[in-house]
Amino acid sequence: MSRFLHPGLVIGSLLVLAVLGAAIFAPLIAPFDPAQQDLLAPLAPAAWQHGGSLAHLFGTDTLGRDVLSRVIYASRAAVLVAVLAAAGAGLIGSLLALAAGYLGGWVDRLVRCAVDVWLAFPPVVLSLLLIAGLGAGVVKVVLAIALVDWVRFCDELLGGVSAAAQSERTAAARLLGFSHLRTVMLDVLPAVLPLMASLFVFEMGAAVAVAAVLSFLGFGLGAHQITWGQMIAVGRLAVFEAPWNLLAPVVAIIATVAGCNMAGGGLRRALDVGRRRA
After folding, report:
1. Could you report the per-residue pLDDT of 69-123, keeping only the tens digit for each?
2. Which of 192, 188, 190 is nearest to 166 (CA)?
3. Alpha-carbon separation of residue 192 from 15, 88, 264, 271 (angstroms)
4. What CA–CA distance (Å, rounded) separates 78 from 90?
5. Where is pLDDT greater, at 2 or 160?
6. pLDDT grade, residue 136 (50/70/90)?
């Protein structure tokens, strides 16, 4: 149990849980309706600045909307995209890695060639090309990220799957006449599950970052969906008058991505140690 108390895993998990909690309980936590405008108080300063008020802890934007409330509500879009995109990328990448690593031969060569070709393209640029063709919306953004980031899972899992497929346990299962599906599910898959779990958490952070870039460039989840990238795009126009319009969503993105990376790294170490000891 002590291996799960690694500082990186604990801190990362707390950050991820904080974002998840903000997304789930946004109506209870946010002090204002994120769409509520106060045109008499645009670009109000943060609470600790001269003329600031505790009512608007991080101030207001150009339309008088509470920045803190918008950051909290934007976490909903970030969590939704992170989970769905990570699940989609993980499903595609894991299935291809299991097929290539277990079957080997031309299947392995074909998948590795596809991974090499896909990795040659910058992920954000490829996401932009896909989303430009697919259009805006949650499903389209998730699909674009999943179709780009499946290579992360596949590339990382290929070595582990190949090693598990060549192990004595798998060879014994084949000699006993077990089906390929049964062998993969009970002998190969458990060997790479710890790596898959950590990659899923890593991919959540990557999906948050890519989704923020897409929404910043105007290829987001839709005009009425509050996102951190959208807030950055608006906040940069008044960065000198109200810096927290820009800094608040930037800090939220950094904290979320850093939390996913720390939690993913800590989870990989903890599960890998447990597996070796077992």
Report:
1. 999 999 999 999 999 999 999 999 999 999 998 888 889 899 999 898 888 887 7
2. 188
3. 26, 18, 15, 10
4. 18
5. 160
6. confident
Structure token digits, residue 54: 């505790």
CB-based contacts of 21: which residues, under 8 Å, 6+ apart? none
Q: Residue 94's domain is classified under what CATH number?
A: 1.10.3720.10
Residue 61: closest CA among 229, 243, 218, 250: 243
| pLDDT for residue 2 | 63
Provide the residue range defining the domain that includes 161. 2-277
The count of residues in the chain is: 278
- Cβ distance 195 to 157 under 8 Å? yes
Entry pTM:
0.88
Tokens 């998990």 — which residue? 13
Count of domains for the chain: 1
Q: How far is CA 102 from the centre of its chain?
A: 28
* Cβ pair 250, 74 in contact under 8 A: no
